[in-house]
Amino acid sequence: MAAEGGGKEMNEIKTQFTTREGVYKLLTHSEYSRPNRVPFNSQGSNPVKVSFVNVNDQSGNGDRICFNVGRELYFYIYKGVRKAADLSKPIDKRIYKGTQPTCHDFNHLTATAESVSLLVGFSAGQVQLIDPIKKETSKLFNEEVGL
What is the pTM of this model? Predict the structure, then answer.
């Protein structure tokens, strides 16, 4: 059965459509299940930063990923671009109240399967050294500016 004008079938499933309220789009599982979305604010919006490290564990999947979304910092096992990480099971998740993470990076030279050092920089100028595998916070620099 053909529809008027386009020759497409009437029972075709749409993946996107527009109404006066906005655009509706069919999301993939990885898009739908990602961590809480942060409302967009064009004046104070910080982009998402991503850091990778390989911890050389015995399972053969030693890649780890860290990323921030707004005031939240996530640490996951990274399985590559073809396999989505299980976003419901982070290795570590931190939510900051006074300031938000703006940058982070791993110490690749000291990373092991049991411990990895991650430096996190914040919008108010603080720098924090954490271990997301052990879930420890070891040092906070510039803490006089408040975290």
Answer: 0.63
